[in-house]
């Protein structure tokens, strides 16, 4: 007997969520625009400091700081000199040498004062020009990177299932325009692929359901014959169960294919009402197995598709009832709004689930301990459909083993 092939691994969940809100302070993010601004401004600041240093050295050399004065007084009759900036030459009884030294010191002091004044004013001018350079660099970086912003906005719109959006970037034929044109070509191919997929799902839905419905009708007609032999009736019941299982498999596959896409048409849906309807549909099965369904369903309105959201609750509650303990089992279903998100939690008693097998439960045709489609509890698509529908609504599902057995399923959806 050939070995059963391993189920295909699901693609990794994307780490970037296009529906993630903008941070409260977007200017604090180390964006390319901020980095280019710092680069432009830093280069200007370094160039200004170098230029200022060169000008200062040249100015100091030009005025010959510390050199001998250009003149000396060697003799005079009734020479009187006064200066408010050089109080040392006002003193009486100065010799010519003392007078010349005072003049030299005063000239040197004036030169140093002029250089300090030049340096301080130059630094203030450099600071003002640096601020202007940073602002100008920020504006120019924004202008240069504006095509990238347009590409990002289009990508977010496409992530919301609007595949008809295109960038259609105008301007010079540079690298950014080449990137935008390549992105538009990729979107065109994606739109054709998704359109073909939707058309295939519609055609497959009709082509697969019709023969199964005919087989079910024929089997029911033969089983309704009271004169049919017992062996034939037993065979008919077996074939009818197999046909019903095939119908469930087809419905699950088609629903899984449809729910992999984002939901375009959204309407207000109360998770409490959805959970109540799911409980009503599973109540008879739970009562037959002696399982108590409890929990409080508080209003939690989300925007989405009511049919698909009902499928989430129904699949989770059905699994909680079917994978339970034989006696004294219970299922708890709660809905509420937490931290701005609608939360559906389904907990149940049941067999012990190892933590390392949690991820396998969400794979198609996988159950606990690698049980596959040979079970009468379902076709192995329930949790796969739940995860797919939750992602299509911008939410996610997580599972956690309970102490003593059973699981706690938590579905979080944006309100």
From TrEMBL:
Q: Where is the HAMP domain?
A: 142-195
CDD domains according to UniProt: HAMP, HATPase, HisKA
Biased amino acid composition, Pro residues: 1-15
Query: What Gene3D superfamilies does this protein's entry cite?
Result: 1.10.287.130, 6.10.340.10, Histidine kinase-like ATPase, C-terminal domain
Which is one GO molecular function term here?
phosphorelay sensor kinase activity
Could you tell me what reaction this enzyme catalyses?
Answer: ATP + protein L-histidine = ADP + protein N-phospho-L-histidine
Q: Where is the Histidine kinase domain?
A: 203-415
- Which regions span the lipid bilayer? 38-59, 123-141
Enzyme Commission number(s) of this protein: 2.7.13.3
Give the bilayer topology: Multi-pass membrane protein
Name the UniProt key words of this record, in alphabetical order: Kinase, Membrane, Phosphoprotein, Transferase, Transmembrane, Transmembrane helix, Two-component regulatory system
Protein known as: histidine kinase
């Amino acid at each position: 007997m050939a070995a059963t092939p391993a189920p295909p691994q699901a693609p990794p969940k994307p780490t970037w969520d296009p529906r993630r809100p903008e941070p409260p302070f977007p200017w604090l993010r180390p964006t390319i625009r901020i980095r280019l601004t710092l680069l432009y401004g830093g280069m200007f600041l370094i160039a200004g400091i170098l230029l200022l240093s060169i000008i200062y050295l040249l100015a100091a050399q030009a005025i010959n700081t510390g050199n001998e004065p250009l003149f000396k007084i060697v003799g005079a009759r009734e020479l009187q000199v006064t200066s408010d900036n050089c109080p040392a030459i006002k003193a009486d009884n100065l010799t010519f040498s003392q007078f010349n030294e005072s003049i030299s010191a005063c000239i040197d002091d004036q030169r140093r004062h002029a250089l300090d004044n030049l340096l301080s004013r130059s630094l203030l001018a450099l600071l003002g020009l640096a601020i202007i350079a940073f602002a100008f660099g920020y504006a120019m970086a924004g202008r240069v990177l504006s095509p990238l912003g347009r590409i990002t906005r289009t990508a977010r719109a496409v992530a919301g299932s609007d595949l008809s959006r295109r960038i259609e970037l105008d301007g010079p034929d540079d690298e950014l325009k080449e990137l935008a044109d390549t992105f538009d070509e990729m979107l065109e191919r994606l739109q054709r692929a998704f359109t073909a997929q939707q058309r295939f799902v519609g055609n497959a839905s009709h082509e697969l359901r019709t023969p199964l419905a005919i087989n079910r009708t024929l089997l029911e007609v033969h089983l309704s014959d009271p004169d049919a032999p017992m062996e034939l009736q037993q065979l008919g019941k077996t074939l009818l169960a197999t046909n019903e299982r095939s119908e469930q498999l087809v419905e699950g596959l088609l629903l899984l294919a449809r729910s992999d896409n984002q939901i375009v048409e959204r309407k207000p849906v109360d998770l409490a009402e959805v959970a109540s309807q799911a409980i009503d549909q599973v109540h008879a099965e739970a009562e037959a197995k002696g399982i108590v369904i409890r929990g409080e369903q508080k209003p939690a309105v989300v925007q989405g598709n009511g049919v698909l959201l009902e499928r989430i609750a129904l699949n989770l509650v059905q699994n909680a009832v079917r994978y339970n303990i034989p006696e004294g089992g219970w299922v708890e279903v709660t809905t509420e709004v937490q931290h701005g998100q609608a939360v559906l939690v389904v907990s149940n008693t049941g067999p012990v689930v190892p933590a390392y097998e949690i991820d396998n439960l969400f794979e198609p045709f996988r159950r606990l301990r690698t049980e596959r489609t040979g079970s009468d509890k379902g076709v192995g698509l329930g949790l796969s459909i739940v995860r797919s529908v939750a992602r299509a609504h911008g939410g996610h599902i997580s599972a956690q083993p309970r102490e003593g057995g059973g699981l706690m399923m938590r579905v979080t959806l944006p309100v």
